[in-house]
C-alpha cells in the first residue's frame, strides 16, 4: 500500500484556500429561499456565474453569511438537503456562536449532526470553516471522496469509514498526526496544514473514483457478467 509520507512535495504545493473554488451557476432553488436572499444578492443574480473560494468564506466575518456561503460552496447544484439545513439557520448560528465562547468542538459536532437534514459531510464543512479543533487537531472536510482517498494510504489503514461523530474525530486526529509527521521530514520553514492533507486526499480520491468508474464501464462493455461481479465484490460496491 502506498505511503502518503512519500507525497510531501505534492501536498506542500497545494493551496486549498485559493485553488478549491467554485465558478459556476448555482441551483435556482437557492433563490427560492427568501431567508437568504440578501446573501445571494451579494453573490450575484439568479443565472449568474458565481465564484467562491475557501478563502472567500474564511474572509466572511458574519457568522450567518459564512454558513450560507459554505453551504453554497459545498453544494452549488446538489441541493437535496441544503434547503432543509437552511431552515435551521438561526439554530446553527446559535450553535456556532456558543462554540466561540466555550470552544467545545465535540458538543458543536453533536449539535450540528442533530440538525434536520445535516449529515457528516455538511457538518464537517462548517466545523472546518469555523476553525473548530478537537483536542488540538483542526477540523477538516471529510466527505465520500475524502473517505475514498483515506483508503489508499498505509498511514490510514485501520481507520473506519467516517460517517459518524466518533469516527470523524478519529479521522481528524489521524490527519493531524500525518500532518505532524510530514512537517517533521521537511527541511525548510514551509509548513503543511491539515487542510492541505485533506485537499490532497480529496484530489486523489476524485481520481480514484473516476478510475474505478472507468474500470466498471470497461468490464460492462466486455459483457462478462462473472468478471464484472468479481470486481464489484472485490471493491465492496
Order of helices and strands: HHEHEHHHHHHEEHHHH
Radius of gyration of CA atoms, rounded to a whole number: 19 Å
Q: Runs with pLDDT <50, length 5+?
A: none
| Portion in strands | 5-15%
Strand order of the largest sheet: 1-2
Please tell me what the overall shape is. Answer: globular
How many strands in all?
Answer: 4
Q: Can you give a write-up of this model?
A:
The two termini are 20 Å apart. α5 packs across α9 (120-129), α7 (89-102) runs antiparallel to α8 (105-113) and α10 packs across α12 (194-221). The protein has helices spanning 8-12, 16-19, 37-43, 54-58, 63-74, 82-86, 89-102, 105-113, 120-129, 144-150, 165-184, 194-221, 225-234; strands at residues 21-25, 49-53, 133-134, 137-138. The strands form two sheets. It has a two-stranded antiparallel sheet with strand order 1-2. With 237 residues, it is mostly helical.
